[in-house]
């Protein structure tokens, strides 16, 4: 399923989650390059827990009009 086919709320939540994880990953990569060591990958918490939440939201069935069944 493409993100464009999702209802607007799902699209916003998924896009926000991906943006936050992307920003955290970029910060972590910058820390790796600046410090020349691998700090604790703090972004994994947001990616994993947020991914589970987004996955549950995707699993909620909706009808053609976008209402929950």
Automatic annotation (TrEMBL):
Sorted UniProt keywords: Membrane, Transmembrane, Transmembrane helix
Organism taxonomic ancestry: Bacteria, Bacillati, Actinomycetota, Actinomycetes, Pseudonocardiales
Protein name: DUF2530 domain-containing protein
Organism for this UniProt entry: Kibdelosporangium phytohabitans
Segments crossing the lipid bilayer: 12-36, 42-60
């Amino acid at each position: 399923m493409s993100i464009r086919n999702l209802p607007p709320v799902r699209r916003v939540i998924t896009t926000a989650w991906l943006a936050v994880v992307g920003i955290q990953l970029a910060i972590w990569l910058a820390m790796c390059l600046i410090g020349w060591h691998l700090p604790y990958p703090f972004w994994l918490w947001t990616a994993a827990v947020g991914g589970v939440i987004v996955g549950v939201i995707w699993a909620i069935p909706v009808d053609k009009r976008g209402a929950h069944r």
